[in-house]
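Researcher: Re-running this chain for the archive, since the previous output was lost when a drive failed. Same request as before.
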Amino acid sequence: MRVVIQRVSSASVTIDGEVRSSIGEGLLILLGVGHEDGPEDIDWLVRKIAGLRIFNDDDGVMNRSVVEVGGEALVVSQFTLMASTRKGNRPSYVRAAGHELAVPLYEAFSASLSEAIGRPVATGEFGADMKVALVNDGPVTICIDSKNKE
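Model: Regenerated C-alpha cells:
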C-alpha cells in the first residue's frame, strides 16, 4: 500500500457536482492498494499514520499526532499511486489491485483508521471520478509505502 498524506486545514471530495465528504483540520490520505497488499499492510500503515507527529505543538514544533489534536481524516482511493514509470512515458498500473481485492482493503483501512483515531473517517467513493479540494497546511505532504518501511 502507498499513501500520500497531507496535513490540511480543510479538504473535500465532490462527485457528480455534489460534495460527498468534507473535513476540517486533519489529514487527507490518498490510498493506493497493490495486488500484494493485505491486512498486515493496513495494520502497519494505520499505526504509522495515527502516531505521525506532524501537527504543531504550542511552540510551533511538529510534535503532535492527528489523535492528539483531535483532527479528522479523509481517505480517498487512488490507484495511480501504484504507477510504475520505469519504462517509457506511459505509466503502467499492473501493480494496482483489482476491485475484488482493493475495495475490501480500502474499506478495512478506513475502518481501522477510524478506530485508531477515535472518530469517523470520511471517504470518497472507490472507482468514482472524484474532484478533491484541499488547503494543505504548511505545506506538509508525506509519502509512505508499506513495502518500503523507511
